Amino acid sequence: MEADPEFELQGLCHLALVCEDMERTVDFYTNVLGMKLKKTINMPNGGQHFFFDMGGDQFLAFFWFPDAPKRAPGIASSAVLPGLGDIATAHASMNHVAFKIPLDKFDEYKAKLDAKGVETGPVLEHDDSPRGVAETFHEGVYVRSMYFFDPDGVLLEFAAWTRELTEDDVNLAPMTAAGVPAGQGASA
């Protein structure tokens, strides 16, 4: 992979989310997902900031604020699991966190979540079809995934790449705020 000439980015340091109940969050991420709690911080405002090891020297962090606003599903977070309805969220929201898992462990990990009472959505075979998801696995599927919520409604994904991505996988112009592909301008 070619290095960035301006910044030597080395992956994700941490992603910081907000929870309603830190005890419940610690229980879910350590006892259900098996992450190790690596750092706990008391904040001057009475809040807390905890870091969980996701592997690869990368962390998932949570803030607990004593007076944080309540969650707003369908605005700041997804209201439903992918494959079961519209997952759109507001601008500047965090839609979901995807954990990379080995493809050969996918079914085993699904069974483990089921055994722990975690409701998962349907297994999604992501492809480049107009729907974006295939009914069954085929050679065009690039990632296999399952989604579930944590106790605070944070949408999580277990994702397994099924093939290497190539230059051919970058073939769309980005959309503008007006909903048109970049460079095409608004039509009259």
From TrEMBL:
CDD domains reported in the protein's UniProt record: VOC
Which organism does this sequence originate in?
Actinomadura monticuli
Protein name, entry field: VOC family protein
- Listed PROSITE patterns: VOC (PS51819)
Q: Where is the VOC domain?
A: 11-161
Q: What SUPFAM superfamilies does the database record attribute to this sequence?
A: Glyoxalase/Bleomycin resistance protein/Dihydroxybiphenyl dioxygenase
Output the Pfam families linked to this UniProt entry. Glyoxalase
Source species, domain of life: Bacteria
